[in-house]
Write a structure and sequence with these properties.
With about 475 residues, the protein is α+β, with helices and mostly antiparallel strands. The chain has 7 helices and 22 strands. The strands form 5 sheets. Strands 3-4-5-8-7-6 form a 6-stranded antiparallel β-barrel. A 6-stranded antiparallel β-barrel has the order 9-10-11-14-13-12. One of its GO terms (molecular function) is serine-type endopeptidase activity. Pfam families: PDZ_2, Trypsin_2. Keywords: Hydrolase, Membrane, Protease, Transmembrane, Transmembrane helix.
Length: about 475
């Protein structure tokens, strides 16, 4: 509550100016005393306002003489004396006690002033009039209260209202809700317990009999005495075993001892445009079934999934998204608005000194599904996967690009005429800014793909064709 300074707040109004020759509450000599009237907007003296019920062409008659012989001047004088007697009142005290009501003639009807000797008849008349005014006042009061207080009765709150009918509407097509309804049954929470500790992440159901795709770093150690458990959206859980892992692509396939699962639908990532809306689903910080949404922020982003201490083996050719991805989302799906998987969430950007557990800053990275599909198929069938290679050892130079330090004998690079000291600046139309860019670009292809390699440097620019090879 705000305190009011002295002199503020509800202060009495200035007294009503009094007629000359008299004071408030004391009528001049020779004039009979009048009963004070409440300061009601419905009972104003003629000198102040007209009755709302009287025609504008006729003056209001606030005090009608019983015999109808009193002159208008006398009536006005009597009204002014009565108004002066009551004084100024800042608030109405009895709002409807003396509320006027239109008579048959259109003028305001008020009980006539009778001498005290006719008290008996006057009491009966006043009683009847009071009953009518009470009913009228109640109706007018109800109307005014409705206008100022709304349709609800006094004291009624939102808590008193009945619950609405249960919503039976379906999710709009292409909405995040519809995507979540479709994909959630195909998302798994994975928990790993080993002798050195434990960890958790997410996975994607590949088949009804328990094959699950996830990240290698989620299940690393699960095949050497660790206990891996899969928790499903329908509340069931089952032990799982590692079928195959590929650290270079950070992908793994595990098999849960369960049936009756709902496999996810895999989409494609090669034609996914930047700015396309996407949804990420997983178990961040152990909160299973968490749904977040965003867009594809960038494509072909070279990312070291293992951080700065990681080597070439952890470089990803990633999709970048601003959908919230946190620890525990790893291995879960990134899906388009048709509910098709377009990426496997794998890494997040973590600014700062690395102390404590990282969280989302709107920079998440996912393995494109086109690459993940090929690797997962090999892991499921053979337990291992082949990586695409150009057959060179590279490093950083003093110019943008990847500097060739050595060429593998008989490899794709040697066959294409690439030599040590060459600076690779493009793979097809993709610009190469550093060694990680070249690794990501090559691994985005499958073994056997033919690509154009642009070589720059002091010797000028040239282009060669190379057929990429596979390496286990």
């Amino acid at each position: 509550m705000t305190d009011h300074p002295p002199g503020s707040g509800n202060q009495p109004e200035e007294p009503t100016p009094q007629p000359e020759g008299g004071s408030a509450g004391t009528p001049p000599a020779g004039v009979p005393p009048q009963a004070p009237q409440p300061d009601s907007p419905y009972a104003r003296p003629q000198s102040q306002s007209q009755s709302p019920y009287a025609p504008r062409s006729e003056p209001q008659q606030p005090f009608a003489s019983p015999q109808g012989q009193q002159s208008q001047a006398a009536q006005q004088a009597e009204g002014q004396q009565s108004y002066a007697a009551q004084g100024a009142q800042p608030h109405m005290t009895q709002e409807f006690a003396h509320t006027p009501w239109p008579s048959a003639g259109g003028h305001t009807a008020v009980a006539p002033q009778q001498p005290h000797k006719r008290r008996g008849g006057l009491v009966a008349g006043v009683a009847a009039l009071a009953l009518v005014c009470g009913l009228v006042g109640g109706g007018v009061g109800g109307y005014v209260g409705y206008q100022f207080g709304g349709a609800q009765a006094p004291g009624v709150t939102s808590l008193d209202e009945s619950r609405p009918a249960r919503s039976v509407s379906t999710a709009p097509a292409g909405s995040v809700q519809q995507v979540a309804d479709k994909v959630l049954p195909s998302v798994v929470q994975l928990q790993l317990v080993t002798a050195r500790g434990g960890g958790e992440g997410s996975g994607i159901v590949l088949s009804g009999d328990g094959y699950i795709l996830t990240n290698n770093h989620v299940v690393a150690g699960g095949g050497s005495g660790g206990r891996l458990t899969a928790q499903f959206q329908d509340g069931r859980s089952a032990r799982a075993q590692v079928i195959g892992t590929d650290p270079k692509s950070d992908l793994a396939v595990v098999k849960a001892d369960i049936t009756g699962l709902t496999p996810a639908e895999l989409g494609r990532s090669d034609d996914l445009p930047v700015g396309a809306p996407v949804v990420a689903i997983g178990s961040p910080f152990g909160l299973s079934g968490t749904v977040t949404s965003g867009i594809i922020s960038a494509k072909d982003r070279p990312v070291r999934a293992g951080g700065e201490s990681g080597g070439e083996d952890t470089v990803l050719n990633a999709l970048q998204t601003d959908a919230a991805i946190n620890p525990g989302n790893s291995g879960g799906p990134l899906v388009d608005m048709d509910g098709n998987v377009v990426g496997i969430n794998s890494a997040i950007y973590s600014p700062g000194n690395g102390q404590g557990q990282a969280g989302s800053v709107g920079l998440g990275f996912a393995i494109p599904v086109d690459q993940a599909r090929r690797i997962a198929t090999e892991l499921k069938e053979k337990g291992t996967a082949t990586q695409t290679t150009l057959g060179v050892l590279i490093g950083a130079g003093d110019q943008p690009g990847a500097l060739v330090r050595n060429v593998v004998p008989g490899g794709p690079a040697e066959q294409a005429g690439i030599r040590s000291g060459d600076l690779i600046t493009k793979v097809d139309a993709r610009s190469i800014q550093d060694p990680d860019s070249l690794v990501a670009a090559v691994r985005s292809h499958a073994p056997g793909d033919r690509v154009k390699i642009t070589i720059g440097g002091s010797g000028g620019e040239r282009t060669v064709d190379a057929t990429l090879a596979g390496q286990g």
